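Researcher: Quick test of sequence recovery. Tokens follow.
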């Protein structure tokens, strides 16, 4: 195809790669670039636009991550096939289709495994974070400043859904970082995701049929199991949860992690997202629960937009947490309810007291407003990116025997055997050399059979030397 007629400018404040990304994404959505069309090579487009080749590569990487385009080895980049993209209408819950041509449990380091009673001195937990990065001095200063004044209101009972100032701040942060569209009134602050998920029994009712991918986040599955009338598991593929499986299951609520599924690391492309939104909007009582648990950590391109940002029919319940980005002990999470569910919340939940201390809410609010949170995130991203890149380098000798997936985001990667192998055998081999790794089947919600073993390697809680030593041992053991 000919080079794209992209007009780049310095006047709109956007990076050049963002302008290239947005132009191509818009052309695909509008049907001006058709499924199967080949894009210019990164070198060709960079020469045409007079920009660095890395600028075009960043734009292409982001488009590929979101499912607009795909890379075909030795051939180039092609437009993905998306049969139809749908915009969800807001009036009467209707649909307006637009035909388009284009397409855990927490593991603690240094603990004994109950199955083998062995001591692990290196633990590749996918849930651990690096607490050495926490800005103790800044947090201590903010806490001291807040408590040094006679702020009696902080010791009074606060609003059930959380302090308004924090909800305003979270609202602005989510819109800027994840594209979430909401008002502060739609945000509910709670002590961890568990509490917020439990609130859904009063908001959605106990008569729901809840669908989960298999494997998935087992704690959330157990929470839904405690109140849902029926639980179902739905097949998934390389694009995430399958909508035909949702339809066949009879579910009316689906728990999804589109930005990065746990534990598989799958990033849901734009086509599957629009299918999900279409499914949710085609019946009055259907909802999607979007768990956006670690969207801050992405090492190529921009963060993947939230599913909620594309929802104009009010069918996505968005849940996030500060446990990964700040510290697990902070225990501050948030839920964004669609406006259509606010009446049910007010009627059935507004008498519950807030589960988060007003002092902790005020400290976090000041931490974000002062810019300390953004500086902390940037520091964490840099450190985790370095660990991620080191891990990938160390894994190179294993890649003739194992396939790597789930890289470039989050805090863990996956290794899958290229020849038939038993998962338990791999875990035992690693345990014999003092290394704890995690099997994919440990996150299974229902039995599933596979001849190829998959293990998770988390790197967030390990320093670089322990990553090197851990992979050196695994190379010998596996």
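Model:
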């Amino acid at each position: 195809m000919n080079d794209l007629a992209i007009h780049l400018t310095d006047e709109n404040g956007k990076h050049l790669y963002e302008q290239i990304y947005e132009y191509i994404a818009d052309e695909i959505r509008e049907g001006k670039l058709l499924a199967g069309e080949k894009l210019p090579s990164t070198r060709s487009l960079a020469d045409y636009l007079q920009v660095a080749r890395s600028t075009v590569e960043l734009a292409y990487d982001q488009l590929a991550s979101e499912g607009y385009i795909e890379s075909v080895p030795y051939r180039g980049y092609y437009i993905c096939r998306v049969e139809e993209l749908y915009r969800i209408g807001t009036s009467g819950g209707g649909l307006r289709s637009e035909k388009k041509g284009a397409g855990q449990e927490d593991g603690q380091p240094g603990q004994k495994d109950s199955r083998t009673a062995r001591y692990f001195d290196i633990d590749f937990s996918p849930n651990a974070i690096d607490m050495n990065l926490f800005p103790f001095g800044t947090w201590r200063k903010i806490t001291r400043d807040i408590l040094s004044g006679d702020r009696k209101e902080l010791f009074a009972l606060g609003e059930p859904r959380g302090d308004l100032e924090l909800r305003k701040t979270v609202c602005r942060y989510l819109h800027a970082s994840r594209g979430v569209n909401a008002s502060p009134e739609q945000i509910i602050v709670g002590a961890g995701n568990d509490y917020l998920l439990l609130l859904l029994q009063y908001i959605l009712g106990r008569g729901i049929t809840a669908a989960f991918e298999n494997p998935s986040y087992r704690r959330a599955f157990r929470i839904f199991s405690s109140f849902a009338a029926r639980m179902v598991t739905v097949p998934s593929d390389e694009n995430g949860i399958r909508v035909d499986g949702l339809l066949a299951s009879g579910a009316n609520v689906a728990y999804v992690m589109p930005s990065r599924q746990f534990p598989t690391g799958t990033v849901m492309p734009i086509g599957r997202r629009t299918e999900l939104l279409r499914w949710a909007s085609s019946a009055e009582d259907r909802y999607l629960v979007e768990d956006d648990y670690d969207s801050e950590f992405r090492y190529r391109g921009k963060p993947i937009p939230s599913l909620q940002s594309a929802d104009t029919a009010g069918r996505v319940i968005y849940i996030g947490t500060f446990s990964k980005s700040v510290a697990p002990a902070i225990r501050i999470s948030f839920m964004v309810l669609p406006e259509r569910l606010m009446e049910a919340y007010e009627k059935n939940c507004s008498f519950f007291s807030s589960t988060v201390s007003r002092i902790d809410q005020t400290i976090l609010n000041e931490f974000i407003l002062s810019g300390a949170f953004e500086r902390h995130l940037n520091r964490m991203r840099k450190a985790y990116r370095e660990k991620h890149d080191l891990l990938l380098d160390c894994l190179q000798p294993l890649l003739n025997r194992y396939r790597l997936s789930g890289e470039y985001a989050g805090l863990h990667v996956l290794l899958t055997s290229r020849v038939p192998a038993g998962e338990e055998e791999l875990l035992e081999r690693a345990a014999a050399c003092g290394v704890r790794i995690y099997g994919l089947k440990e996150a299974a919600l229902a039995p599933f059979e596979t001849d190829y073993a998959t293990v998770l390697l988390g790197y967030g809680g390990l320093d670089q030397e322990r990553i090197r030593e851990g992979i050196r041992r695994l190379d010998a053991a596996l």
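The longest strand covers residues 316-321.
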